[in-house]
Specification:
The complex is a heterodimer of chains A (287) and B (177). Chain A has 287 residues and is of the alpha+beta class. Chain A has helices spanning 2-28, 33-39, 43-63, 67-104, 272-276, 278-286, and strands at residues 114-121, 131-134, 147-149, 154-161, 166-170, 177-182, 188-193, 200-202, 216-219, 231-239, 248-253, 262-267. The chains are: A alpha+beta (287), B mainly alpha (177).
Amino acid sequence: MKSKLLVLPTRLLLLGILSVGLMFADSRTDSLRQVRSFVSVISLPVHVVASSPALFFRWVGGDLEDWGQLRRKYEDLQHQHLILQSRLQQLDALQFENDRLRDIISSAARIPDEGLFGRIVEVGPDLYDRTVLVNRGTADGVYVGQPVLGPNGVIGQIIRAGLFRSTVMLITDPSQGIPVQLMRNGLRTIVYGSGQGDLLRAPYLGRTADVRKDDIFITSGLAGRFPAGYPVGRVIKIQRDPNAPFLDVLAQPSASLGSAREVLLIWPGEDDGQRSDPATTSESIDR
Amino acid sequence: MARGQILQRRVSQLIGNTSHTKKWWVIPGSLAIAFCFWALPAGPGWQNYAPDWVSLILIYWCFAIPGKVGLGSAWLAGLLLDVVSFGVLGRYALSKTIIVFLAERLAFRVRIFPVWQQSFLILGLLAVETALLTLLGMTFGEIEFSYGRWVAIVGGALLWFPVYFVLRRVRHWARLP
């Protein structure tokens, strides 16, 4: 017994060092990315079992939706479809015109982004508030850093890709910044998660910047990670402190992050970065 | 009479209940169930209040059969939890190893305690783990401090009662010491 008690601490120490080494390798380097993408397959049965009760109840709930409700929903969707369809017709014309104008200023034409639908997997406690799990993985071509969209705007980006599941970091995470511009006047800045209350914060807008309430931030495509033109958030509060060099701008995410069930994973068209590069654009205009 | 005994043996063979072999597989089996409980979805905003089932089960087996759950298997269970939770690898591995280490140290003293006193000890153990996880989470990124985790340890301590009684039945059924 005594010897066993003596043996324990050295083993504890060894395992502790091993764990810390693993944590370091996993969070600071990319060396484990391949391994964990394959190993994560083990978690699939656990996720399937754990999410089955919720799926079952939703299925039952969906089945018990009454006729009138379904009818109303159907009509709503049909109206929405009609409206979107009519706007799409306009979009085609605009796209054509846009391409032609781009041709004139000899800027590269925009390649449409490709998308893949994914469902949000509901699992337990450790997916902290600002990450969600999606049922797509490297088997579907998902990569780390891939942008993820919701019905109304940007949701976040992939931070870890497993073979069949991957983790999305939401835009409300304070460690994530997205290059954006204001839809109204094209003013460029960067938006971060605010860290509390699921809001966004734009900390680098100067005191004299032209921002108003209800302005919309869209992705500018500058860093080459998020394709340009998708809505990110709507300005809800601007605090002007005469002593501070920057405005304190708070925005609400356009996508409903809390209630989204389905997401769109995007493979950006190839020349987004070049397209939005301000230097080349202005140069070609001058010419 | 003889016929009845043979029949009874047949039945018990089929059920696999009265055979005198020890069913050690209930330990990994109960852990597998704990994993599924752990991964149960709890709705947005409530995730942090979910109790840590895996720790409870590990601690139970440490108290009930001291020396059976080794540090190595605790580490492996923690690593599996890291994989299932899609978190930083090694975080739960470390915390579960330490929890099992502490539980093994306490096991011989704790076995004679009544259950409600044990639940206070569980509170302490879970608090140690939560503190450790929070610290690691802050060091290696991803998570921030959350009060929910601390509420969850109270829930975990209360869950000790059902866990204890259910697992004791299981242990007797499996003829483990």
